[in-house]
Amino acid sequence: MDLGLSGRTVLVTGATGDLGTVVARAFAAVGARVVTGYNTNREAAERLAEELGNGSFAIRYSLDDPDSVAAAVTEIERSHGGLDVLVPLAARLSGRRPDADSFATAPPEEWVPFVEDNLLRTLRTVQLVLPAMRERGWGRIVLVSSHLARNGRAGMEFYGAAKAALHGFTRSLMWDAGASGVLVNVVCPGVTLTERVRARMPEQAREAERAATPSRTLTRPEDVANLIVFLASAANGNITGESVTVAGGR
Ligand SMILES: NC(=O)c1ccc[n+]([C@@H]2O[C@H](COP(=O)([O-])OP(=O)(O)OC[C@H]3O[C@@H](n4cnc5c(N)ncnc54)[C@H](OP(=O)(O)O)[C@@H]3O)[C@@H](O)[C@H]2O)c1
Q1: Residue in 38, 61, 159, 230 annotated catalytic
Q2: How do residues 137-187 score in pLDDT, each as one tens digit?
Q3: Catalytic-residue membership of 159
Q4: What is the pTM of this model?
Q5: Is residue 144 lining ligand 1, measured as CB closer than 6 Å?
Q6: Domain 9-246 has what CATH class?
Q7: Would you tell me which of 6, 82, 101, 224 could form a disulfide with 31, CB atoms 3.0–4.6 Å apart?
Q8: 188: nearest Cα among 141, 224, 152
């Protein structure tokens, strides 16, 4: 299968994160030039870009600095003639509100950032990259939600609300984008065995997750990355507006 990603330019924001790094490597493995977005970890982003080759390079993309987002998009347009694929993975974690607080009393300063990062700033980034994709008549946008947007979990109201909104956004955006060859989809990972999850989730809790999963297997970062790469590729000829879950049946 020809993924048609060789020579394409892909922006992975949050590329220094657990999922972002694996996603960036998966794109590079099929010949794409990867722009590795970082917030604080410039050195790691530059090291990763060097490892990936194919003309990959690092760029600052901070959710706290809207100008950096616009500057990143402009720089990619200027230096490489445009962006073909956007995968926004920059995120402030974790999404769970502190157990001590109830939903009703959680103060805005605690939960508004989840909505801003996962929803508002993602929408803004899509707004910034879409015109050039439209102009060139080709583009792929893959947003990352979570199986929690569908299944829910105690304590994840705000995170779940922000992630679920991406699904509604995509169902409408597909009309505007699709008319010019831009396909937009959402990937919903289950509990994914990233370094952070391995460090924070005791083996007993992982076992309980496995038992509650039809495939009895937790998702690997590579499972998420493979799905993202496919949806972002030319091999995806006509899938748009979909939310695809990679969570072993959860
Ligand atoms: N891991 C899972 O099990 C799982 C499951 C479902 C969905 N997801 C989703 O996948 C995405 C990535 O998760 P992850 O586990 O890879 O996260 P992670 O390892 O914590 O990485 C977070 C990334 O976001 C960047 N970042 C943090 N604050 C930022 C800010 N203010 N502005 C810009 N970038 C910022 C970090 O950049 P620096 O290192 O440069 O500071 C880092 O690259 C999130 O949307 C998450 O909701 C994860």
Answers
A1: 159
A2: 999 999 999 999 999 988 889 999 999 999 999 999 999 999 999 999 999
A3: yes
A4: 0.96
A5: yes
A6: alpha beta
A7: 6
A8: 224
